[in-house]
Amino acid sequence: MSTKYTLELRPDKKEIKVSKGENLLACAIKAGVYLNSSCGGDGVCGRCKVLIKKGDYKTEPTGRLTSEEKKKGYVLACLTTIQGDLTVHIPKESKLDLAKISDGDAQFLRLKGIYSEAEEADAGKAIIDESIYSHSPLATKVYLQPPLPTLEDSISDLERLYRELRKTRDIPIMQTGLTNIKRLGSLLRHSNWKITATLGKRNETTEIVVIEPGDTSNRNLGVAFDIGTTTVTGQLVNLNTRKILGTKATYNKQVAFGSDVISRIIYATEEHGLERLHHAVVDNMNDIIRVLIEETKLNLTDIMGVMCAGNTTMIHLLLRVDPTFIRREPYVATANFVPVIRAAEVGIKIHPRGLLACVPGVSTYVGGDITAGVVASGIANEAKTTLLIDIGTNGEIALGNREWLVCCSASAGPAFEGSGVTCGMRATKCAIQGVKIKDRQDGIKLTTIKGGKPCGICGSGYIDILAELFRNGIMNKNGKINREIKSKRVREGKDGLEYVVCWKEESEADSDIVISEADIENLKCSKGAIYSAAATLLKKVGLTFKDIDQVMIAGGFGTNIDIDKAIMIGLLPDIDRAKFKFIGNSSLVGSREILLSYQAMEKAEEIARKMTYIELSVEPRYMDEYVASLFFPHTDLDKFPSVKEAIRGVRSK
Amino acid sequence: MALELLKERWSSAINVLKVGAVKEEGGTRASAITVGGQTTLPFLLDEGGMPHRPVVAMEIFDVAPLEWPVSLLEPFGDAVKDPVKWAKKCINEFKADLICLTLKGTHPEAENISADKAVELVKNMLKEISTPLIIIGSGDKEKDNDVLARCSQATKGENCLFGLAAQDNFKTLVASCMADDHCIIADSPIDINIAKQVNILITDMGFKPEKIAMHPSTAALGYGMEYVYSIMERSRLAAFVGDKMLAMPFIIFVGQEAWKVKEAAANVADEPGWGDERMRGPLWEAATAVAMLHAGADILVMRHPEAVATVKRSIDSMMKGNND
């Protein structure tokens, strides 16, 4: 093992020293080159395809490469070990585009909602009136000038501080760490009895987090995070004024270890797995904080608190808590309500004594992200019965009003996030997001994010394609492509028939951009899972879609979907279009609300406690609903009257 | 005081399916078979009508099914070696309402009989028998698409019942049956939603719903029959309240399922405690068939003559409103 070889990665021109027998995928990650790997290196997904230019290697056989590709020298990085100096070319489609954090990129990430119309972009307003929760942030700074001690007024320094604080606000239980007490005596005297105390709400107790000399009370910052399985988003907020100072998003670096929570939980059980996953997300957060601070020219040490909303697994990994038991029956998390801790304990670089809090989760599969979403959407305060659908890999759905709340989680899979489909990609630059088929033969109009040449298809693009293929009779209700269509776009592919969405010459991709029957099947399962989960949840409480006053669609992906087309394919219910509301990244908005208000935190806790979780896997009706939904738009066409009308019109043409 | 029974009334009826065509209709059958049309759950004749009684088709193969248990082969003697003779025996001696010809021998992994030969057999069969005919493929998708399409063309006008059209392979057969005016069997794997989906896919191609029979899958007594029962019952209830895409009559392949199970097939030497298989086998098949009648079966495809006789008696009795 001592022999060191050189691994050269092109076109990045990165070189690192590696040992004999090391795994190529692991080495690439070590070199800072992230490859696509939905399966986490099991050789199953075939997305870490690389081209060996020269050198010695061993690779295991795989059916994920065509014989032509094998002849050219393509291998799957995860199945390849290094046996000598090696030069490897990494094709564009295999590279995980770990976008640099910049405004431009952030704007077009999966969480487009941050700058979306639904959220009123620049202002970043929540959809509900923010003032419904009192202003009581996670960390509060108070400037104090306690009277000097005298022989008559000789209470201790600490009690003097408490007395002074209690003059300004009602604080029943207060505590201070030994570190602060040790410094208190000299600090008060050196600062001439002018100090700023930072108070933190740690559950029921108010803690004096830190005491600083002078008046720093106007410099009090916080960061709200949404830690998604795919994307991490952070928002810098002035805790005093509630002003949003900036929002940044980046891909979750954990993606390199598996694209869904289950493969990450499995990865966590491997040697150093948990550590790597933990460091990946902490790096993400520190990166975001650093960039936000650099751009705003503020001080890192003025950030006194961080609030995180994420699914249960993400929170476990952030806190470096073993997530193993989440995926073992009976699926129990280690903690859904995590107490407030010091951010430094997990490696988040803010003020060394700054706090880190997590939005409480409902159950193992309905995490703090959905609680935050419910807080942000305000459905727990409304008289209107609202259905909240977060379209993501874990398709969380909440239903209710101020009187009651139920929720469930539908394993929709990552297809609408562009994973597990032939030409899928996340909603980033160059992704096809809009499709219009003008005629059956050839005419097709594509729009891409930022308008460049297409290099793949993102979720909203897939919704459009499905709806257009269906509307034009190119695909039947079962999701099979019509062989009889006379178009050069319909052809025999690797997985049955496929439809060419964009020819190689007109794209940035290395081959034609297609949608195959296997992709359609995959997307059909995803849309079926979301619709049937919502239908089951409604049935469980004795309601139908007609009884719903409004439907809120969350998730960055949800902000740029065409509602009519989503209904056409049966992803969303066929009800009055005016009832649909896009709320963008509700998890981030909720996270911010909770960062800014202890009352919102209490609301989140109340929601998490009161929301009834329905486990669909034990719900006998669910399977029935699910199979009924595996059709375009649905087995029961009467549930989709407008689609029925639309396709009748097409046929009569 | 007399107790008044609550009667259920439904708004919709099951489709009427006609198999076979007489001379005036362009065929050569002595008479056609008509099933369906119910406005009530099976045999609840006080609640609604059952204008057409369920029928029994007897199943024969194009090649002698020597794998069948002796107790099942025995009644037919040498006739199993000649499909036409076999069919005639079923009609004349065992009173089959119609014949179900399964083209097992065309399977590439069986005898791989050519489409030409199959067409010849089917034509010959229609010449020699006067009842309507059900024609079933071997189960090999590609071969069936060839064989059944050719058979359909060769029997144009006879209004045969062809099967099976499944979710992943229906287009060729539907197109053929539509062109040649035959009926079709829509197959689904014990799933009410898929059953409906297949019917939608078939009718979306322009096929008339009245020419479809549904096969919701069959299971033998003791082998999940109650699951099929509940799917059939749910389909019927949906049809009665107006679901047109579930209003097709049912065809149930009792024989092939019942004789697959050891309780029917094992001989007494191997299972001394179970009694004579010559009595046990037909009883197992008949019991399965009667249960399926109560679930709503319209066409039963059966094998053993004694089971057929028992079931026909049972139908007679139940059609008289005798539900004992």
What is the typical, i.e. mean, pLDDT of chain A? Answer: 85
Instruction: Provide the domain count of chain B.
Output: 1
Count of DSSP-assigned helices of chain A:
16
Which descriptor suits the 3D outline of chain A?
globular
What is the CATH topology descriptor of chain B? TIM Barrel
Number of domains of chain A: 5
Task: Return the string of H and E elements of chain B.
Answer: EEEHHEHEHEHEHEHEHHHEH
Q: What Rg of chain B, in angstroms, do the CA atoms define?
A: 19 Å
CATH top level assignment of the largest domain in chain A: Alpha Beta
User: How far from one another are the termini of chain B?
Assistant: 24 Å
- The CATH C-level name of chain B is Alpha Beta
Protein name (chain B): Acetyl-CoA decarbonylase/synthase complex subunit delta
InterPro entries (chain B): Ac-CoA_synth_d_su_TIM-brl, ACDS_complex_subunit, Dihydropteroate_synth-like_sf
Organism (chain B): Candidatus Aquitaenariimonas noxiae
Organism (chain A): Candidatus Aquitaenariimonas noxiae
Structure description:
The complex is a heterodimer of chains A (653) and B (324). Chain A has 653 residues and is an alpha/beta fold. Chain A folds into five domains: 4-94, Ubiquitin-like (UB roll) (Roll), CATH 3.10.20; 103-119 and 219-358, Nucleotidyltransferase, domain 5 (2-Layer Sandwich); 139-213, Ubiquitin-like (UB roll) (Roll); 378-414 and 524-651, Nucleotidyltransferase, domain 5, CATH 3.30.420; 418-514, no CATH class. In chain A, 28% of the residues lie in helices and 24% in strands. In chain A, the strands form six sheets. In chain A, strands 12-11-10-13-15-14 form a six-stranded mixed beta sheet, sandwiched between helices. In chain A, strand 10 (221-227) and strand 11 form a beta hairpin. The model of chain A is unreliable at 98-128 (pLDDT under 50). Chain B has a single domain, classed as TIM Barrel. The longest helix of chain B is centred in the C-terminal third of the chain and has 19 residues, at 277-295. The mean pLDDT of chain B is 95. At the A-B interface, helix 15 of A face helix 6 of B.
